[in-house]
Structure formats: structure tokens, C-alpha cells
């Protein structure tokens, strides 16, 4: 079993302060608020549940064409659950990024809803998500790790080292993979591969969204790496596309590519009916790195993506590699 990415980086960080971090959020809402957040407990009807999953499907299609494309290759029940997971993650993340007012209060409100034993009837994402949690016995510990990662964006805008960034990537991306595996089925040995894939996916996100995140005052590229290439925060915040910046992005892209390669064997440890979907997700998302390169590393005024024709081509390559390696 894999245990480390490089000296100092533990693949699965030990259980830490996720629960404490979330509990600290609770002081942003008073007891009256918490009481109002819990619904009457009336059972969810089949019609409400069907509508809720439809909303999650629409959210996935709108916000992540690559993820929507990849999940098409899952069996219907697993596809429905995985898209509910995506909608839950997207909604949770948007609470911090898009909050019109007090973001800590909004996230505390959301965490209380997630922890509630009953489901608000006016929230289709939570209706579908709670149904998924029940059907697949999703680990509350993993859900709390995910929420703790999202909460980090409230207070953390810089990361000193890649080891520091690893914890964030683990929480907001690797944990999503670990939850996904509870839905699709897996061998125990798949876990550390999933952690690496999650970090690769999140690092790809970070590189694609450097300009957007800079607009929010956030720099996810480790400070140590900026210094290594002779760059400062101001270079990122001002969107300076220098040769040094391009060298930095090449370095980070190579790091992500290495993680994609190291995570690949884990796909063979998943339930066979999910191999193509996960391989497609990893391969298509990896294609974003090629898009960044094709844009001459301009991540400030362009958003790299993979067109449908590119997705189809990458899907074919992923399927060929699956046949070669696992069948």
C-alpha cells in the first residue's frame, strides 16, 4: 500500500481538528437560529425526492460539464448518488465563495442543516444528499472533513508549503473521492490511490483558477514554490504572465501529472461498473492541464477547458488504457 507522496507528506492526514473547526463555526448562529433550521420532520414524498435528484442533475450539468460527462458512464443509481454528492459539494463551496453577507454565519447555518436529523423540505440538494447518505451509509467523519476544508477558505488565503496545501486538497477533493468510493464500491487498497487522485484534481483546479482566486485575495500556490521561482504574491495578484510565472505553472503541472499517473492503478481496485466513469473523470480533467499549456499558461484572462470533441477523444484513450491495464 502507498503511504507517502514525498518525505513529509502523509497521504491521509491523521484525524485532526475537523470537528473542532466546525464546532467553532457554531458561535455564529444563536440557539434560536439552530431551532429554526430543523424542519417539522414530515416524511419526504417520492415526488419531492425525484425532483431533488433532478435538481442535483441540473446543477452538475450546469457547473461541471466534465464531471457530468464522466458520470454518464455510471449505472443509473450510482450516477444519481454521485451527482447528488457533486451538488452537495458545489452548494457547500458556493456558500463561502458567493455569500452576500456574513460568510461564516452562512456556513455555520449550512453545517447545522447538514448535521440536522431531519431534512428541510425547501432544499432539494439536502433532500437528495440525505437520501444518498442513508442509502450508502456515508461516513459523517468524511463529510465533516469536507466541510472543514471548505471552512478553511474563510480564514486561510496562503499556504506556506506543499505539505500545508496537501491538507486542504485532501479535505476538499480527496475526501470527495473517498465518499464516492462508498457509493461505487472498492477494495480497501484503493484508498491511498484515491487520495492522490483527489490532490491531482484539486491542484488542476487551483492552476486553472489562479486568476479567479486572486480576485478573491487567495493564492493557493505554496509560498515556498513562489519564492523558488522568484515570484511574490503581488505577481499573482497583479496577473503578471512572466517567464518565471510560466515556469512555475509548468512545475505545478508536472506535479499534478505525476499524481495522476501514481493514482491510476487505484481505478482497477474500484467496482468494475465504475472503471470507465472514474477513468474518464481523471483523464478528461487531466486534459485541463493541456488546455492551460495551449493557452500559453494564461490563467488570468482565459479559463482552460476541454471541448466535447476533446472529451470524446480522451474517453477513447481512457478506455483503451483500461483494457490494457485491468481487463
Amount of helix: 55-70%
Number of distinct beta strands: 0
**CATH architecture level-2 label of the largest domain:** Orthogonal Bundle
Tell me the name of the CATH class of the largest domain. Mainly Alpha
Integer average pLDDT: 90
Structure in words:
This protein has 2 domains: 120 residues, no CATH class; 172 residues, Farnesyl Diphosphate Synthase (Orthogonal Bundle). 68% of the residues lie in helices and 0% in strands. It has 16 helices and no strands. Helix 1 packs across helix 8, helix 9 packs across helix 10 and helix 14 runs antiparallel to helix 15. The relative contact order is 0.11.
Labels describing this entry:
327 residues, mainly alpha, Farnesyl Diphosphate Synthase, 0% strand, globular, disordered N terminus
Amino acid at each position: 500500500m502507498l503511504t507517502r507522496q514525498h518525505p513529509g507528506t502523509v497521504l491521509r492526514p491523521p484525524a485532526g481538528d475537523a470537528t473542532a473547526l466546525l464546532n467553532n463555526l457554531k458561535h455564529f448562529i444563536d440557539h434560536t437560529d439552530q431551532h429554526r433550521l430543523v424542519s417539522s420532520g414530515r416524511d419526504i414524498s417520492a415526488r419531492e425526492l425525484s425532483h431533488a435528484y433532478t435538481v442535483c442533475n441540473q446543477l452538475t450539468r450546469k457547473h461541471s460539464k466534465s464531471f457530468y460527462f464522466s458520470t454518464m458512464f455510471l449505472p443509473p443509481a450510482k450516477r444519481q448518488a454521485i451527482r447528488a454528492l457533486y451538488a452537495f459539494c458545489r452548494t457547500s463551496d458556493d456558500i463561502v465563495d458567493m455569500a452576500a453577507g456574513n460568510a461564516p454565519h452562512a456556513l455555520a447555518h449550512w453545517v447545522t442543516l447538514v448535521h440536522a436529523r431531519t431534512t428541510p423540505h425547501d432544499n432539494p440538494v439536502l433532500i437528495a444528499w440525505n437520501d444518498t447518505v442513508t442509502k450508502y451509509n456515508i461516513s459523517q467523519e468524511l463529510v465533516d472533513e469536507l466541510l472543514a476544508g471548505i471552512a478553511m477558505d474563510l480564514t486561510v488565503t496562503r499556504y506556506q508549503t506543499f505539505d500545508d496545501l496537501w491538507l486542504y486538497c485532501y479535505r476538499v477533493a480527496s475526501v470527495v473521492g473517498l465518499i464516492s468510493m462508498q457509493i461505487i464500491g472498492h477494495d480497501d487498497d484503493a484508498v491511498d490511490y484515491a487520495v492522490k487522485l483527489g490532490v491531482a484534481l484539486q491542484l488542476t483546479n487551483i492552476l486553472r483558477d489562479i486568476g479567479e482566486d486572486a480576485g478573491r485575495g487567495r493564492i493557493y500556490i505554496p509560498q515556498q514554490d513562489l519564492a523558488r521561482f522568484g515570484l511574490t504574491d503581488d505577481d499573482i495578484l497583479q496577473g503578471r504572465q512572466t517567464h518565471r510565472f510560466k515556469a512555475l505553472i509548468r512545475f505545478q503541472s508536472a506535479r499534478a501529472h505525476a499524481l495522476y499517473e501514481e493514482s491510476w492503478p487505484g481505478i482497477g481496485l474500484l467496482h468494475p461498473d465504475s472503471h470507465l466513469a472514474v477513468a474518464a473523470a481523471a483523464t478528461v480533467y487531466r486534459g485541463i492541464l493541456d488546455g492551460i499549456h495551449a493557452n500559453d499558461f494564461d490563467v488570468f484572462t482565459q479559463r482552460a477547458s476541454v471541448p466535447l470533441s476533446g472529451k470524446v477523444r480522451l474517453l477513447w484513450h481512457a478506455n483503451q488504457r483500461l483494457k490494457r491495464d485491468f481487463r
